[in-house]
Design goal:
Elements: E1 8-10, E2 18-20, E3 24-26, H1 43-54, E4 59-66, H2 83-98, E5 102-108, E6 138-139, E7 152-153, H3 156-175, E8 180-185, H4 190-195, H5 210-213, H6 215-227, E9 234-239, H7 250-262, E10 267-271, H8 288-297, E11 304-308, H9 314-322, E12 328-331, H10 333-337, H11 341-348
Parallel strand pairs: 3-4, 3-12, 4-5, 5-8, 6-7, 8-9, 9-10, 10-11, 11-12
Antiparallel strand pairs: 1-2
Bound molecules: flavin mononucleotide.
The site of flavin mononucleotide has 20 residues, from strand 4 and helix 10.
Length: 367
């Protein structure tokens, strides 16, 4: 059996961890499909996530799911800020489980990149104005680092309110039945905006030095940890590099990964960029170096690192795991194109399709 398709366990701080049927993860991907603009997931989320669960993924991550309405990237984003949201996510989680996959939720706050048009082919770009249902975006500082009209700077009171909101959302995610929770600290959204010196120009205890810039992230991690069962894995997604001069670096990411691991984060996914236009490297596996840096810095026992970014080929994915650069592989756009990506990978790696193909589709040839 290949490493990619062998069963694995996602570690947690208590209990035995979360067993997964293989090491493939569906990347969190915004679907811009909540047409009612109330954050309540719809049949689209059921079908999108359900198809990838039945397509063989070990774990499927939801799209960025907003902890408060103002934390949505676009008005059509999903959220989890009321009991109605919890109830709407529950049957989606149950369907994912029935397909043999685990269900993970990515909790998010878009910060200064909130209230923008959905990234669909036929929509505008930039901020949604108030008369079209937009709202005021809030970030650590009011500047143009994000490539949008400047957001408003958060007050100390608002910052502490947001920390609490992360905890409430974590409790709801548990109540909805999710098995794993990923804190979105990447891509120029709120947590990352505090980390990066380009977006964070505060001169109070939340800005300036490394210790001050990571303060908000540590507070959020502590609050989520208090509200999320110790038996369930807690994950975080970082932008390992801003890829811009004077930005957030991989050395800082490694140090922060160690700190949040001490606070109970056991699963790490390494993406990059998001403060302004992307200026990093492109090409197959372009972010694997970032996963490797975090993998090498953390104790192997009790931690799990996933690599993401233009990993489309099963043999490439397997090579990353065999080299020890990461423990699991997150698949984004390739899984939009092919919901059965893991089944096809099993065929390509010689494991056969039987283990992962949905029984209803057993007569299909995935070769
Ligand atoms: C349509 C789309 C929506 C995305 N939405 C999110 C998101 O909600 N949260 C997130 O962390 N990353 C998001 N991403 C980034 C992906 O999770 C992934 O990191 C990126 O696409 C690179 O992986 P890939 O080359 O396998 O697609 C999105 C990407 C796409 C294509």
């Amino acid at each position: 059996m290949s490493r990619l398709l062998s069963p694995i366990t996602l570690p947690s701080v208590a209990g035995d961890g979360l067993p997964l049927r293989n090491a493939t993860f569906l990347a969190p991907m915004c679907q811009y499909s909540v047409t009612e603009r109330d954050g309540v997931p719809t049949s689209w989320q059921l079908v999108h996530l359900g198809a990838r669960a039945s397509g063989g993924f070990g774990l499927v991550w939801t799209e960025a799911t907003a902890i408060v309405p103002e934390g949505r990237i676009s008005p059509e984003d999903a959220g989890i800020w009321s009991d109605e949201h919890t109830e709407a996510w529950r049957p989606i989680v149950e369907f994912i489980h029935a397909q043999g996959a685990a269900a993970g939720i990515q909790l998010a706050h878009a910060g200064g990149k909130a209230s923008t048009y959905p990234a669909l082919p036929d929509t505008q770009r930039g901020r949604v104005p108030a008369d079209e249902g937009g709202w005021t975006a809030e970030a650590p500082s009011s500047n143009e680092a994000l490539g949008l009209t400047p957001p408003e700077a958060l007050t100390m009171e608002q910052i502490s309110g947001l920390v609490s909101a992360w905890g409430v959302a974590a409790r709801r995610a548990d109540a909805a039945g999710f098995d794993a929770l990923q804190i979105h600290a990447a891509h120029g959204y709120l947590l990352h905006e505090f980390l990066s010196p380009r977006s964070n120009e505060r001169d109070d205890e939340y800005g300036g030095s490394f210790e001050n810039r990571i303060r908000f992230a540590l507070e959020v991690v502590r609050e989520v940890r208090r509200n999320w069962p110790a038996e369930k894995p807690l994950a975080i997604r970082f932008s390992g590099e801003d890829w811009i001069e004077g930005g957030w670096t991989i050395d800082e990411t490694v140090e922060l990964a160690k700190r949040v691991h001490e606070l109970g984060v056991t699963v790490f996914d390494l993406s990059s960029g998001g403060i302004g236009a992307f200026t990093g490297p492109v090409g197959p596996g372009y972010q694997v170096t970032l996963a490797r840096a975090v993998r090498e810095a953390l104790p192997r026992e009790g931690t799990f690192v996933t690599a993401v970014g233009q990993i489309t080929d099963a043999r490439h994915a397997e090579a990353i795991l065999v080299a020890g650069d990461a423990d699991g592989i997150t698949i984004g756009r390739a899984a939009l194109a092919n919901p059965n990506w893991p089944v096809h990978a099993a065929v390509e790696l010689g494991d056969g399709q039987e283990a992962f193909v949905a029984p209803q589709y057993w007569r299909a040839s995935m070769a």
